[in-house]
Amino acid sequence: MKYFFAELKLYICNKVIAKIPSHRLRLWYYRTIMKHNIGQKSYILLNCSFDNSSRFTMGNNCVINAKCRMDARGTITIGENVSISEEVIILTADHDPYSPNFQGQNKPVTIEDYVWIGTRAMILPGVTLQKGCLVAAGAVVTKSVPPFEIWGGVPAKKIGERNQSLQYTVDYKRLLH
């Protein structure tokens, strides 16, 4: 019975709540029902999906744009002033390719302060995106990214460096998103 209600909560989250054009209602559901720890002035836009509850933390002044997938079967921890662009996928679970019985495994993903993830990027299990790094659109990140580096490609590799004096505040509030 416990499994049924956990699955029902996820179904309602992903198929009903995620489509309601009221950020306040979605945020209430994520914080209260899903038990996500979400900071002040942070936004999760329409049609984002979650694979688990209570293993998701997001700091202040962050945005997760529309149609992102947050696989929180492992743990996803997001710092402050983080911008996650549309259709990003963050995975925390996969299977051991060397296991004879297709053994599943969870690995946390950590996204530190001032990280910017471009559209349709994919972050794989066990990755840490360190302070101020930028992941280019369409990149597949298979290993941790050092601070203030710009990574792109498949698989992602260093393609540049960001300014280390970042001082901005992410504030991306939309009325019906």
From TrEMBL:
GO terms for cellular component: cytosol. PANTHER family: ACETYLTRANSFERASE C18B11.09C-RELATED (PTHR23416:SF23), SIALIC ACID SYNTHASE-RELATED (PTHR23416). This is Acyltransferase. Belongs to the transferase hexapeptide repeat family. SUPFAM superfamilies: Trimeric LpxA-like enzymes. Keywords: Acyltransferase, Transferase. InterPro entries: Hexapep, Hexapeptide_acetyltransf, Trimer_LpxA-like_sf. The lineage of its organism: Bacteria, Pseudomonadati, Bacteroidota, Flavobacteriia, Flavobacteriales. Pfam families: Hexapep (PF00132). Gene3D superfamilies: Hexapeptide repeat proteins. GO terms for molecular function: O-acyltransferase activity.
